Amino acid sequence: MDIDPGGDIVVFVPVANPDDATVVDATEAPLSDLPYFQRALSRASDEYEEGMEADFDADEHRSSRAALVRDGISPSEVDALVEALERDRAYRALEWYVAYENTTYPVSVRDIAP
Q1: Which of 15, 31, 49, 63 shows the smallest number of beta carbons within 10 Å?
Q2: Helices (DSSP H) in the chain: which residue ranges?
Q3: How far apart are CA 98 and CA 77, in angstroms?
């Protein structure tokens, strides 16, 4: 039996980080302990080519066209990722910047509500 995903991880083409952005290091625990998150970042790193960001306007950097990776994750994986990032679950879409292999990617975790 297939289980519906609880949400998804979306890794976007890198853009200039806002001055007030907090950048999370993906190589440090607890994020490094989440294999599904590491796989998404690894695939994004493989897909990304330097200079791709020039193809997007500032308002497009979080569009589906700018997504390098979109992976469905289970409700427990959503919860574990939110907990690892120490973010308030009250928000429907969690977004932050993650450093991985010398590149900082905008990443979103979207919770699919029942």
Answers
A1: 49
A2: 35-47, 75-85
A3: 17
Per residue in 6-27, pLDDT (tens digit) is 888 999 998 877 788 888 899 9
| Amino acid present at 16 | A
**How far, in Å, CA of 26 to CA of 98, rounded?**
6
Amino acid at 14: P
Strand 7-12 relative to strand 23-25: parallel, antiparallel, unpaired? unpaired
* 112: DSSP letter: -
Which pairing describes strands 23-25 and 67-73: parallel, antiparallel, or unpaired?
unpaired
In this predicted model, what pLDDT tens digit does every residue of 45-59 receive, in sequence order?
999 999 998 888 767
- Give the 3-state DSSP-derived string for 35-52, with helices as H, strands as E and coil as C: HHHHHHHHHHHHHCCCCH
Strands (DSSP E) found in the chain:
7-12, 23-25, 67-73, 93-100, 103-111
